[in-house]
Amino acid sequence: MIEKIPLPSSGDHNAVALTAKNLTYLIGKKGVDAAAVCQATGLGIATFNSLRRGVGNPTLSTLMGLSNYFNVSVGELTEIDLSEKKLKRSSAKTIPLIKMSDLCMYLEQKHDKYDTYTTEIEETSAKGYFSILINNDSLYPGYSSGTVFIISKDDEPYDGDIVLIKIGTHRPCFRKIFINGDNFIFSSITLESDISPSIYKDYQMIGVVLKSIKTFSQR
């Protein structure tokens, strides 16, 4: 079973600073300068220099372009101090990236054109995993638009996990799960929600959230 990684709080801004540190490290390791990176990735020099200073709100497409150029995953670029850890390249897996608004079509196998996302998964195969891009404010303020959830369809949930479920005929949604004997109690993951903790009889467990990527802009 893949090791669970604690979900970050929405107020944690360390990802931007860590990304800046990693970019400085990767530039030195690759022996290139900012101009070469920008020419290869299509980024503006001002945008790239802002990232190196640890300011701004990089888009997901920007992070994916940089991670591809430096041959690391987005998760490695934003979550791990690359200067202190030697990475196992076999742990980087590419999985489907589905927008929240397209999730129903994807689950019904009516949506075969989707982006991909590369992140660390210790399993030998990426089968059974996909990622969801939150492209609306339905989970705000807990998770802003642009957050990416990594989902396992095969892992069993533990008490306190966040899961993706489909309740009756409603659209899939995220809930925090609490295990009480043989019963599952589901509660909202947004602090300002008026949804009370509930036990559902008619529901489908779609997957377990293994981790969320630090919040960035989706545009």
Automatic annotation (TrEMBL):
Signal peptide: none annotated. Residues 40-77 form the HTH cro/C1-type domain. One of its GO terms (molecular function) is DNA binding. PROSITE patterns: HTH_CROC1. SUPFAM superfamilies: lambda repressor-like DNA-binding domains (SSF47413), LexA/Signal peptidase (SSF51306). It comes from the Bacteria. Gene3D superfamilies: lambda repressor-like DNA-binding domains, Umud Fragment, subunit A. InterPro entries: Cro/C1-type_HTH, Lambda_DNA-bd_dom_sf, LexA/Signal_pep-like_sf, Peptidase_S24_S26A/B/C. This is SOS-response transcriptional repressor LexA. It comes from Glaciimonas immobilis. The lineage of its organism: Bacteria, Pseudomonadati, Pseudomonadota, Betaproteobacteria, Burkholderiales.
